[in-house]
């Protein structure tokens, strides 16, 4: 059985080295994989609802218990709680916060999250609540001094797929 995902966007290795998450931009899902410790081979566990369309960049806060996902087409970030035993993500109700236009890159420290927005050329700073782990915007830096350019890929990005095929030993 092949497990093919449409337009995978970001891959993230959970700090315990046991799980891998992949946001599937074309499906609105987040895939969970188990890492076989001896070989590093990935085994697909399941796909989870991304609670939005086209999930993009993702990061885990320092305790490893909370997971944040950026949604470039919806201009928002959402939070999930991670079950460290099985890797499951639980959507945190009312965790959505707005970003600038087309958020692309996110970085997290112990207390703060930073998001760069491609089309509005801004960087937003969020404080991470130490108890609820929800984000609250506290600062916006407008008009970053950088430019964005890229070479058009040979084929349209929305036709990109990733397939995991079981290995025959």
What does this structure look like?
The chain is an all-beta fold. It has one domain (3-145): Methylamine Dehydrogenase, Chain H. It is built from no helices and 15 strands. It has strands at residues 3-6, 8-13, 19-24, 29-35, 42-49, 58-60, 66-71, 76-82, 89-91, 97-98, 103-108, 112-117, 122-128, 135-141, 161-164. The strands form 4 sheets. Strands 6, 7, 8, 9 and 10 form a 5-stranded antiparallel β-sheet that branches. It has a 4-stranded antiparallel β-sheet with strand order 2-3-4-5, with no helix packed on it. Strands 11-12-13-14 form a 4-stranded antiparallel β-sheet, with no helix packed on it. It is globular.
Which segments are poorly predicted (pLDDT under 50) over 5 or more consecutive residues? 146-169
Summarize model confidence as the mean pLDDT: 80
The tally of domains stands at: 1
Question: Into which percent range does the helicity of residues fall?
Answer: under 10%
Q: Which CATH first-tier class would you pick? A: Mainly Beta
Strand content: over 45%
Radius of gyration: 17 Å
What's the SSE pattern? EEEEEEEEEEEEEEE
CATH superfamily: YVTN repeat-like/Quinoprotein amine dehydrogenase
Main structural class: mainly beta
Number of E strands: 15
The CATH topology assignment is Methylamine Dehydrogenase, Chain H
Report the end-to-end length measured between terminal Cα atoms: 15 Å
> How would the global form be characterised?
globular
């Amino acid at each position: 059985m092949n497990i093919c995902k449409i337009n995978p966007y970001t891959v993230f290795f959970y700090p315990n080295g046991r799980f891998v998450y992949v946001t599937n931009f074309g499906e609105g899902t987040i895939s969970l994989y188990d890492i076989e410790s001896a070989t590093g081979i990935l085994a697909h566990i399941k796909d989870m609802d991304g609670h939005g369309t086209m999930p993009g960049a993702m990061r885990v806060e320092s305790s490893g218990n909370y997971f944040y996902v950026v949604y470039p087409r919806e201009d928002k970030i959402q939070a999930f709680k991670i079950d460290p035993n099985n890797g499951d993500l639980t959507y945190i109700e009312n965790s959505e916060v707005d970003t600038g236009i087309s958020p692309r890159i996110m970085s997290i420290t112990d207390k703060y999250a930073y998001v760069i927005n491609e089309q509005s050329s801004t960087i937003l700073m969020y404080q991470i609540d130490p108890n609820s782990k929800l984000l609250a915007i506290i600062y916006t830096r407008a008009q970053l001094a950088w430019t964005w350019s890229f070479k058009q890929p040979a084929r349209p990005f929305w036709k990109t797929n990733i397939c995991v095929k079981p290995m025959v030993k």
